[in-house]
Every structure is written in C-alpha cells, then in structure tokens.
Write a structure and sequence with these properties.
- Helix content is 47%, strand content 18%.
- With 207 residues, it is α+β, with helices and mostly antiparallel strands.
- It has two domains: 2-82, no CATH class; 86-204.
- Strands 1, 2, 3, 4 and 5 form a five-stranded antiparallel β-sheet that branches.
- The two termini are 14 Å apart.
- The model has no long low-confidence stretch (mean pLDDT 95).
C-alpha cells in the first residue's frame, strides 16, 4: 500500500522519535494503532497530522486502517513531497481567510457591524493578525473573530500545524453557535479538517 507519512525537520517521527532513512525498511512485530507499527495516513486524513515534512511511504505486511490513520508492520520512505512546504503555507493562509469570513458573518448576525467591517476589510494576513489586540472576546461572534486573528498570526509565524488547527477549531465554534452545541462543534471541526485534507491532496496531486 502507498500512503503518506509526516516527519519533523530532522527526519524523525513526531511521536516516537524514530529516525527514518529513505529506502530503508522500518519493521515492527505487529500493527496496532497508536501502540505499535509503522503509522501513516491516506490523503483524506492529511490535515490531522501536519508536520514539517511529508513523505510518500510504502507499507507492507500486516496493514490495519484506523481512525485518521493506517498502520503496518513494515514500511519505507519512497519520496519526499517537496511541494508540501509551500503548499502548507498556502493552506494556512486559506484557512485564516475562511476564519475571517465566517467570523464576519457571525458578527453581522450579532449586530456588531463595525467590527465585521474591519475584519472583512483585512485583506492581508498582517492586517488580520493586527486586529487581535482590539477584540474583546465577550460573545460567540467576537471569539470567532479572535480565532481568525490567531489563525493569521500562526500562518505568518507558526509551525505547519498551528494555523490549520486554529481554523478547524474556529469552524467548530461557528457550527456550535452561541449555545456551544458540542455535537455541532465536532461536525464543524471534522468538515474543516476534511476540506484541508482535500485541498492539500489536490494541490499536491496525491490522488
């Protein structure tokens, strides 16, 4: 099976610290999700595991599919997805703008048109991030606005995972609404993660 694996900037698995060398098989005695084996993901789950580098990986032996991941008893790196570094930066900007637009709609529905106009008028990441200090998180909509500014800040200065995570949280809050419906939050969060994964997969031609 061909799948995809994220590594840190030094070629290590983020959770186990195992150092990977392209072409060299890494083996385990069994494949048990979150406990033992070579962990990777399919294109539909990319956004859940964002890290500094992305690789195509070949999996063999026992293979088990689990929630947001696939686990095998052996695997090896096939190739580095070089375009990922630029693509994940683009994804962060896309997510921040989606946060901004959702928050502006929520603010208008709440009657906070002045803040909504300022948010909608922030055409750059820098301008959007700069609004954060002036937002009083006293309502559902203003919290959404604050998350939008956080997403912009992380898109400018954060790690690959930070801004997309904030964007997914913001989508969850938007779905939960003023009452904070937890089930609706989970749906919104999952939908944004699915959007992010699909966006990355299409942008990188991963199929």
């Amino acid at each position: 099976m061909r799948a995809f694996k994220f590594l840190d900037g030094r070629g290590r698995a983020p959770f186990t610290g195992v150092v990977w060398t392209p072409g060299t098989w890494v083996e385990a005695s069994r494949a048990v999700a979150c406990r033992e084996g070579v962990h990777a993901c399919l294109p539909r789950d990319l956004a859940h595991w964002l890290a500094p580098s992305l690789w195509e990986v070949e999996l063999e032996g026992e293979i088990v599919e689990s929630r947001h991941k696939v686990v095998a008893s052996r695997g090896r790196l096939v190739r580095r997805i070089d375009a990922y570094v630029g693509a994940v930066r683009e994804l962060a900007e896309v997510g921040a703008r989606r946060c901004r637009d959702r928050a502006a709609l929520a603010l208008r529905a709440e009657g906070a048109t002045e803040l909504a106009d300022r948010l909608a008028g922030a055409s750059s990441l820098e301008a959007l991030a700069a609004l954060g200090a002036s937002i009083d998180e006293s309502s559902h909509a203003s919290t959404a606005a604050a998350l939008a500014t956080d997403a912009a800040g992380f898109a400018l200065r954060g790690t690959p995972a930070q801004s997309p995570f904030v964007a997914a949280c913001a989508a969850g809050h938007a779905s939960a609404g003023p009452t904070g419906d937890l089930a609706a939050y989970d749906v919104g969060y999952a939908e944004e993660r699915a959007y992010q994964s699909a966006w990355l997969s299409e942008r990188l031609g991963l199929g």
